[in-house]
Design brief:
Aminopeptidase; alpha+beta; Alpha-Beta Plaits; 2 domains; homodimer; 14 helices
């Protein structure tokens, strides 16, 4: 283990240079123009896998972007870890808000800035380098490893589910390890035990059958922007609760133990509001900010558009207006069920003056993993060794739908070992990964592989 | 008058031939390539003015396209009419949608098709020929006339306002006559006596100081799209009334005579809704559709934007959301005053969770020439004689900024004598003027000049 750790320490500069190459590939999965880049990125990952000493490396086609697989299965009797990550990234727009170009990784203030630095190329790369530290010069890993790195996480992992279903045998393991989340705060390593689910919808309203002159027609037909605003305004009540009937029906209440645990975390609403630049926070009455984000379902407008949006004044009464609205879900809400409740409610409250279409763009279930499972306990031990500090327990407000799929298809629990930071700007301009977390993450990854067999022995093995 | 009318009747073929020459000049003011054509067109108008017997004909340069001026001031003691029109046209594109070439005037189904046929060359030409009928063989007009034909109406008349301001004395008159609009319907001559004004605003909301991940932050801060929607939803009450305090305070109520006059117009809400493709109309309770569009102030969302608006799903909680909102105004609302009321109200109702900026992008006053004013009464008498049918009264929901400028700079009311049709395709392919309206318009123009002195005598003169 000493050799592994000192190897990691000695190769820092090379790791940063290699990571920059990885981050330079604009593997934006949602943009058809970037399809060749996504393909090129898959090949880059495969080449790295071969370089670090993994075996059976394959770029495996799907109906969408390819999955990259590799394994190392020579630790007889040791547990098998299925390491999942993704090499695709969110679109970089709006480009003008980036301090340095999104695909030219740049270090400032001990952070490495680039699209994908934290979500998730940087965190995939952390494990590749800890694997390299074990396997170099014909070395060996303390566990068996299977790596599954996909290219469609940012667009809903549409083709990964059939892929996993078709390759159940190949992907068989004892647990799933994912590093695609954040620790609680800088210097506060934490282990995340629950994720929210998602139901992502689009509403399209049509009023008049063409754009009209707002002078000649204004006042006689319902403006679709106004109608859409009226619909959106009805989706929360004055206590910040979502008004969709039965929306909260299946929500698993927080235990007193969980609420108490959250209260132990270093947190200040005042500081949080200041960091976000808002004079006042907003949310569901009766819950703290952390509870709202981690353990309560919410409804957010992700986008809205309609009419004239350029410079100056155009007197149009538009034909159409649209919004993207997503709901974050908690155990035991079901994404499809919530999407149906949403659609039903929108159609009920939409006025007859417009026609409305509701589409379910994508979804995923919430997940929760017991904090006394062997994988989580090994992760806690590894974090303490990797960062020199006992980690805290937390949840995460975001979604990783594949966690639910791994449970449903492979029967595996997932350990979420997050090396990002809450302010890392994932999905936004100036995304970054902190360099302490990057290198601490590599040490933690190595310790996790070393610790797991101990916690796994005699229990939790399939 | 008999001679004038029979002259008009006898020269129909020549008029059509001359008009075709006028329409053949592609005087597209917005296209720099057409600058020589615009200049040539100004000269064509000037030559026509000379030919028909007008005096002091001048092509007057501006910082943009020239203004053409002429007068005839020999009717001692009679009122003076300032006739305004424009010789520039909209671009003809998309060319492939024209049945016959836009600059080769073609008659089909009793309509003359060409760019500018109705807007506004055809209507300018109507008056030139009625003037010719009076002035031929050393004849005289019943009124004094000043003609002001500009070349930048289709690009915002940027240089006309300074021109009018600099030539106040030259343009001094008793009223303005404009033929650049439509009658209510084919076979339904009408006189338009009022226009709405405008206050065009932009609201910019900022919530968090950057785009956030909607999973990691959703539920803890007020989404600016949601906040903007909540603001917009509050701007109308359930009766379709604008909720801004004092918004209706200065509104001049419709008289019973006006409401009765509107009811005489051939109108079907059902047909209107069907043409617009809406299942149900919308508007301020207690008013008909025509009243809502013509005589009531309204508030319309012209554009809205915020967050992710591309294909697919991006889970962003955006930092910003914006809307363009304009209000159509009626006498005696003032644009600046309404803009201030709007800004005050928005700032009052905006929640403390976001910061809001309100900007006044532009505005213009409403205009009204009372139906019992001499100019309107003369126009009504002229239309009845010109078309053999009592005209109906109408208003227009849009704005004609130059009407407001003539009122503000020269202190003159405007008579709007429109010979176009609502379906004339102004600004679109297959623009046309109906031949009945073209020749009826010439007779009406002649009658207007003949009738005006009678209605004007003793009142309304400066």
């Amino acid at each position: 283990m000493e050799q592994v750790l000192s190897y990691l320490d000695q190769n820092k500069d090379r790791y940063l240079a290699e990571l920059k190459d990885f981050l330079a590939i604009p593997s934006v999965s949602t943009n058809p123009d970037n399809k060749p880049d996504v393909q090129r990125c898959a090949q880059w990952v495969a080449d790295q896998m071969t370089t670090v000493g993994l075996q059976n490396v394959q770029v495996m086609p799907t109906a969408g972007h390819p999955v990259v697989y590799a394994d190392w299965l020579n630790a007889a009797g040791a547990p098998t870890v299925l390491l999942y990550g993704h090499y695709d990234v969110q679109p970089p727009e709006p480009l003008e808000l980036w301090t340095s170009p999104p695909f030219e990784a740049t270090i400032r203030n001990e952070n490495l800035y680039a699209r994908g630095a934290a979500d998730d190329k940087g965190q995939v790369y952390i494990h590749l380098k800890s694997i390299e530290a074990f396997l170099k010069d014909g070395g060996s890993l303390p566990v068996n490893l299977k790596l599954l790195i996909e290219g469609e996480e940012e667009i809903g992992s549409e083709h990964l589910v059939p892929f996993v279903t078709e390759h159940k045998e190949m992907l068989n393991a004892d647990l799933v390890l994912i590093s695609d989340s954040s620790m609680f705060a800088k210097g506060v390593p934490s282990i995340c035990y629950a994720l929210r689910g998602l139901a992502y919808m689009q509403i399209d309203l049509v009023g008049p059958n063409k754009d009209l002159h707002s002078g000649s027609f204004g006042g006689s037909v319902h403006n679709p922007i106004q109608a859409l605003s009226e619909i959106i305004a009805q989706l929360h009540d004055k206590n910040g609760k979502v008004t969709i009937p039965d929306f909260y029906k299946a929500v698993r209440a927080l235990s007193k133990k969980e609420r108490d645990a959250f209260k132990k975390l270093p947190w200040s609403d005042k500081k949080y509001a200041k960091e976000l630049g808002v004079a006042q926070l907003y949310g569901e009455k009766g819950f703290s900010s952390l509870e709202r984000v981690w353990a309560r379902p919410t409804l957010e407008c992700n986008g809205i558009w309609g009419g004239f949006t350029g410079e100056g004044a155009k007197t149009v009464l538009p034909s159409k207006a649209s919004a993207k609205i997503s709901m974050r879900l908690v155990p035991d809400q079901k994404s499809d069920k919530i999407a149906k409740l949403f659609e039903k409610h929108i159609k009920k409250i939409a006025p007859k003056t417009v026609s409305v279409t509701v589409r379910n763009l994508h979804g995923g279930e919430a997940a929760i993993t017991p904090i006394d499972s062997p994988g989580v306990m090994a992760a806690v031990a590894a974090l303490e060794k990797g960062f020199g500090k006992k980690p805290l327990y937390q949840r995460e407000g975001g979604s990783i739908p594949i966690v639910v799929q791994f449970k449903e298809i492979l029967g595996l629990d997932t350990v979420l070992l997050g090396f990002g930071l809450p302010d890392e700007n994932a999905h936004a301009p100036d995304e970054f990964i902190n360099l302490d977390n990057f290198f601490g993450g590599m040490r933690t990854s190595a310790h996790f592989f070393a610790e797991l067999p101990r916690f796994m022995s005699g229990k939790g093995r399939k």
